[in-house]
Design goal:
Blueprint lengths: L3 E2 L5 H5 L4 E7 L4 H16 L4 E6 L4 H6 L7 E6 L2 E7 L4 H12 L3 H9 L1
Parallel strand pairs: 1-3, 2-3
Antiparallel strand pairs: 2-4, 4-5
Length: 117
């Protein structure tokens, strides 16, 4: 599955849906971002049930500000409309796969209960 480009106009629509959305905050000039891009693309090809999305921080500074993105690349995982993971750094493929497994395994009822507490 190809990645989706997120903008201020479509971010909430994509992120608030059911299921998992992985968001790569990146910029063209960022070396680590360019190294992480093929890893992200490969994972997108092996997980068709997940939305893989990219936010160009240069083109969408309001999204970077909204989510407090201070370093790129930053990977954010959203499940059923809830941000469950956000961490800067270019992840190796094995670590990205581990993040995906952990996000899949979350008990979202428990997550929501904890958020309310």
């Amino acid at each position: 599955m190809a990645t989706v480009t997120l903008t201020a106009d479509n971010f909430d629509e994509v992120a608030q849906g059911d299921g998992i959305v992985l968001v790569d905050f990146w910029a063209e000039w960022c070396g680590p971002c360019r190294r992480f891009a093929p890893v992200f693309e490969k994972a997108a090809g092996t997980h068709p049930d997940i939305v893989f999305a990219k936010v160009d921080t240069e083109a969408e500074p309001e999204l970077s500000e909204r989510f407090g993105i201070a370093s790129i690349p930053t990977l954010m995982a959203i499940r059923d409309g809830v941000i469950v993971f956000a961490e800067p750094g270019a992840l190796p493929g094995s670590v990205l796969e581990n993040v995906i497994e952990q996000v899949r395994g979350l008990d979202m009822e428990d997550v929501r209960r904890r958020l309310e507490a």
